[in-house]
Amino acid sequence: MDVYHLSYPNHLYINPTNESYSLAVGFFDGVHLGHQAVIQGAIDKGKELNIKTAVMTFDPHPSLVLGGRKEKVFYITPIQEKIEILKSLGVDAVFVVRFTSDFAKLTPEKFIEYFIIQTNVKHVTAGFDFSFGAFGKGTMKDMEHLSEGKYSVSVVDKKELIGDKISSTRIRAELTVGNMEQVRELLGRPFKLTGVVIHGDKRGRTINFPTANVEPTEGQFTPATGVYAVKICVQETWHEGVCNVGYKPTFNNPEEKKLSIEVHIFNFDQSIYGEEVTVYWYKRIRSEQKFNGIEELKEQIGKDKQVAIEFFKKEEE
Questions:
Q1: One fold for 2-158 and 188-316
Q2: What topology does CATH give the domain 188-316?
Q3: Dihedral of the CA atoms 302, 304, 310, 312 (nearest 10)?
Q4: pLDDT tens across 164-212, in order?
Q5: 37-82 pLDDT, tens per residue?
Q6: Which CATH class is domain 2-158?
Q7: Domain parsing of the chain, residue ranges
Q8: CB within 10 Å: which end of the chain, N or C, has fewer?
Q9: Residue-by-residue DSSP string for the chain
Q10: Of 164, 275, 290, which is closest to residue 225 (Cα–Cα)?
Q11: 121 near 53, Cβ under 8 Å?
């Protein structure tokens, strides 16, 4: 799969082979089931027209550039993970367009000129609510109206699950409360977090529950505090485990707020500091809580571990 990083006005696409594309366009944070329907539509159209399929996405999040958001933006799928998922879906090329102040000022007509026609797109597929151009004034009706016969357009209707629209906003809301089973349904796969194993306080070893302290890649969304049944990939091997996201209230001063992500990996005893790991999140077992001592904590971790073991056993049935 080819990946092209574009920006306006200096780094636009130069088509070296005059390749034509069926293009899916959108921000696609999460690449959830609704996004996948748009991308599959582009793939199907590409096969019909006997041309390659491409996805156009944008980086960073528009709100970072437009200034409408005060809090930090966290991604369900950071750009590199997004690219990996698109590759797994069978896309031939990805255009990552840098979202800058100059790009944000482009009129709908100029967006089409530089990023659709100049890219030799023969068909555009997008969701019903996709907008483009300055102030998001361009709609999919405009996309079709401004085509001048140079490309065709398909619009994919909203996709619903349990009576509500599948959306990145909805997924973030579910992550905020730790509803990983619902997130999994909306994404079509478990939520994924990557990071590097760093040194922690090593307290887990003293209570016979050693943990891998995971420092997540910057910009990733972290689920709600609590204890989860997870799978973790270490050195290309998957292991089951339980993960605690929180502030360790049993040991820490409540005034010192430092969030940690710690995974107790079942049947595992290796030093993995510095390793990049991937964590898949399956089920929230309970909220984080403060215990009256180490013995009470050890007893609860044992119970959490058993819940996770039973959960994964049912998953395999």
A1: no
A2: Elongation Factor Tu (Ef-tu); domain 3 (2.40.30)
A3: -120
A4: 999 999 999 999 999 999 999 999 999 999 999 998 765 555 556 788 9
A5: 999 999 999 999 999 999 999 998 887 777 765 567 789 999 999 9
A6: alpha beta
A7: 2-158, 188-316
A8: C
A9: -EEEEEBTTTB----SS---EEEEES--TT--HHHHHHHHHHHHHHHHHT-EEEEEEEES-HHHHH----SPP-BSS-HHHHHHHHHHTT-SEEEEEE--HHHHT--HHHHHIIIIITTTEEEEEEETT--BSGGG-B-HHHHHHTTTTSSEEEEEPP-EETTEE--HHHHHHHHHHT-HHHHHHHHTS-EEEEEEEE----HHHHTT---EEEEEPTTB--PPSEEEEEEEEETTEEEEEEEEEE--TTTS-TT----EEEEEETT-----TT-EEEEEEEEEEE-----SSHHHHHHHHHHHHHHHHHHHHHHH-
A10: 290
A11: no
